[in-house]
Design goal:
CATH architecture of the largest domain: 3-Layer(aba) Sandwich
Number of strands: 17
Number of helices: 8
CATH superfamily of the largest domain: QueA-like
CATH topology of the largest domain: QueA-like
Helix content: 10-25%
Largest sheet: 9 strands, mixed
Shape: globular
């Protein structure tokens, strides 16, 4: 369980900088755990991999335009990155702050349209607690002035089309600072065709935050601790999962965020507890999955917790063989890249 066991080299030109021409048109690598066979189809043909009675669980979180730019009273430029809203009165957020000098409690940051951000105190990890004023109409102001939080390996500024394409078609509940990227490939037409086949699609919410993307900084990965991320599993979703665990079909997780939420809320018999909470489960090889039977996922960064989760699901050796195959076939990687179906 050493960090270097999850490293690989990716040619930089394979990192997707823009989405595919249209949703659902990406390539889909297929990986069969039982046989070790690796194949390829179009994502639009994902239905051929599904069986009648299968259940697809999606993450309906909605990405907020979390990047803000302003200046200190001295005039110095500041970037404020919203991480998560805190459950206290007012617009109080845990934020990352990038400036020439580290901020201090009491630092006032001036943003667009007269909105200010006052640094309160240190938060968890690398975050700061920040109070935004005025609080009235903050959501609407954020929609106007915030920038979509594209990950740093996309080496360009966010553009107008990112507002739509870095968001799933079922995004509903605001709160994520990164997209659940496997869901970016789904289209309303594809979802409808699956439903007509009798494949049920249900949702849960997990607000993707720092816990998913912070680097692992320990050599023995078992010492890594995940940040908490808010999740909510509705009664309908928990009931549908329970029915599949009684033999009616498979639970197919659309993305690692769905897998994390389901496994965090899992019981020993494979059902899940409905309700909300904060998921901090860290899944790496050796973990026994209780709920998820098949996983649809994008390709992930070296040494990342997401790569470790998928290694636990597919088996590290098979997964790294699939990644090597994807690189040789020139698949597109990461958020706007191609996908993988592991059965």
């Amino acid at each position: 369980m050493q960090l270097d066991d999850f490293d690989y080299y990716l040619p930089p030109e394979l990192i997707a900088q823009t989405p595919s021409d249209r949703r659902g048109s990406c390539r889909l690598m297929t990986v069969d755990r039982a046989t070790g066979v690796i194949g390829e189809i179009s994502f639009s043909d994902v239905g051929s991999l599904l069986r009648d009675g299968d259940l697809i669980v999606v993450n309906d979180t909605r990405v907020i335009p979390a990047r803000l730019f302003g200046h200190k009273e001295s005039g110095g430029r500041v970037e404020v990155f919203l991480v998560r809203k805190l459950s206290v009165p007012g617009e109080v957020w845990a934020c990352l702050i990038r400036a020439s000098k580290q901020p201090k409690p009491g630092t006032m940051i001036h943003l667009a349209e007269g909105v200010t951000a006052c640094v309160q105190e240190r938060g968890e990890g690398e975050t700061w607690i920040v109070l935004f004023s005025p609080a009235e109409g903050f959501d609407e102001w954020l929609d106007r002035q915030g920038e979509m939080p594209l990950p740093p390996y996309i080496r360009r500024d966010a553009e107008g089309f990112d507002r739509e394409r870095y968001q799933t078609v079922f995004a509903r509940v605001k709160g994520a600072v990164a997209a659940p990227t496997a869901g970016l490939h789904m289209t309303p037409e594809l979802m409808e065709s699956l439903r007509l086949r009798g494949i049920e699609i249900v949702s849960l919410t997990l607000h993707v935050g720092l816990g998913t993307f912070l680097p692992v900084r320990v050599e023995d990965i078992r010492q890594h601790r995940m940040h908490r991320e808010y999740y909510c599993i509705p009664e309908q979703t928990a009931r549908a999962v329970g029915e599949r665990k009684k033999g009616k079909g498979r639970v197919v997780a659309l993305g690692t965020t769905v897998a994390r939420a389901l496994e965090h809320a899992a019981t020993e018999d494979g059902s899940v507890n409905p309700g909300e909470g904060e998921a901090d489960i860290f899944i790496y090889p050796g973990y026994r999955f209780k709920v998820v039977d098949a996983l649809i996922t994008n390709f992930h960064l070296p040494k990342s917790t997401l790569l470790m989760l998928v290694s636990a699901f597919a088996g590290r050796e098979l997964l790294f063989r699939a990644y090597a195959e994807a690189i040789s076939r020139r698949f597109r990687f990461y958020s706007y890249g191609d996908a993988m179906f592991i059965s």
